[in-house]
Amino acid sequence: MDRATNIMLWDECEQDRHGDEYRIWFVQLGDDDxxxxxxxxxxxxxNHAITTAQNMSRDRRLPIEMGW
Length: 68
Prior knowledge:
Helices cover 22% and strands 46% of the residues. It is built from one helix and four strands.
């Protein structure tokens, strides 16, 4: 397994069953090349995703890389 060097935080658009778009936020460990490592944590709200990223950053002493 590659060594994690950052916490990645980004959003993507998804569609509900009616075709309406909404944002999903992801938080995941990343390596030097910006490749994801391990589990991606999925959030419906931006604030929850940011809180998760901040907690992971503090616990692992890694910087947050925001992809928006």
